[in-house]
Design a protein that fits this description.
By secondary structure, this protein is an alpha+beta fold. It folds into two domains: about 1-35; about 40-155, Tetrahydropterin Synthase, Chain A. Helix content is about 50%, strand content about 25%. The chain is built from six helices and five strands. The strands form two sheets. A three-stranded antiparallel beta sheet has the order 1-2-3. It has a two-stranded antiparallel sheet with strand order 4-5. Helix 3 (about 85-95) runs antiparallel to helix 5 (about 110-120). The longest helix is centred in the N-terminal third of the chain and has 34 residues, at about 1-35. The protein is elongated.
Length: about 160
């Protein structure tokens, strides 16, 4: 009993520190879980193609898939597994697109066609939409075919 009377203040301080540490640990773990939430957008890669109807131009863009949030993990896994098959079919299709589709600033027809390709390869509706960014229409002379990047000399002239 003398020990309790003698050290009750120190025991109280230690208990307060333990409770405080537990609360801080819990809050930090919840915040880290929130920051680890994955975005529902999956990058499908950069595409570069030359349509067979017009060999004077090369088109370049980045493609993203918006995955259904309720099936996010499964959707990402399936997209990752089928990425190369989707890419092959998409590139074959892009080389044969109608010239009018390439002139459309919103690329609706191309996105719809790419969405059809993705759905065909996934066998289930995991993707809600396709996003196209960094759309470039380049003359064939400005593309370095060895490195796959625009030629720097033409940009300087």
């Amino acid at each position: 009993m003398n020990i309790i009377r003698r050290y009750w203040g120190a025991f109280l301080i230690v208990m307060m520190v333990v409770v405080h540490a537990a609360v801080i640990g819990y809050v930090r773990s919840r915040v880290s879980r929130l920051s680890d939430l994955d975005a529902t957008v999956v990058e499908m890669g950069s595409y570069r193609f030359q349509p067979v109807e017009d060999l004077t131009k090369v088109y370049h863009f980045k493609l993203y898939a918006v995955v259904d949030p309720t099936k996010q993990r499964h959707g990402e896994e399936r997209l990752h597994m089928m990425r190369m098959q989707i890419r092959e079919t998409a590139e074959q299709t892009l080389r044969q697109v109608d010239q009018k589709w390439l002139e459309d600033p919103t690329q609706n027809q191309i996105r719809d066609r790419l969405m059809t390709i993705v759905h065909k390869h996934l066998d289930e509706p995991l993707v809600q939409r396709m996003l196209i960014t960094d759309w470039l229409e380049l003359p064939i002379q400005s593309v370095d075919l060895k490195l796959g990047t625009p030629v720097q000399k033409l940009a300087l002239q």
